[in-house]
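Incident log, entry 3
Record: Cytochrome B561 family protein (174 residues)
Problem: checksum mismatch between cached and fresh output.
Input:
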Amino acid sequence: MFDSKSRYGAITRLLHRSMAVLILWQFLKLGDRIADGEHWVGRTLVPWHISIGALLLVLVVLRMLWALGQRHRRPPHQGPGAPLVKGGHFLLYAGMLLMPLSGLLLMLGKGYGLKVFGVQLVARSGLETGWLAALGSLHAPLAWLLLALILGHVGAALFHHLVKDDDTLRRMAG
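Fresh output:
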């Protein structure tokens, strides 16, 4: 259940994998935008975008709290690349937190209200709040940045597995 020096625990792996699947789902929105909403993805998966984003916000906060509690159980990052690894993980967590927050600001700033899994949390006002909408406008550029960070993360994991032949990827596999 808990992390160790040799592998990530069940909770860490569950959070990592479930968030990976949900984030991949969220990125289907990019394809829908390219197809101008006329693709089957836009009619089936994209309507869940806001609800999944809200779920991801909860999960990333839980994941950050869990990681904070597990930090002493995990092996320390060593070597000349350690600052890069720490910085990369910081940026990934920041991106995973800022994406749903900026989406929330966009919805509220544009006066759209907020409906999550069918529950109306904030009523639609139709009134734009400039500063909220301006902060929310960072949502799309942040998506591209998060996508680049995720691709770098996957690339680094594959590099460790295929080139360095170390246990980095196997630690997450369990």
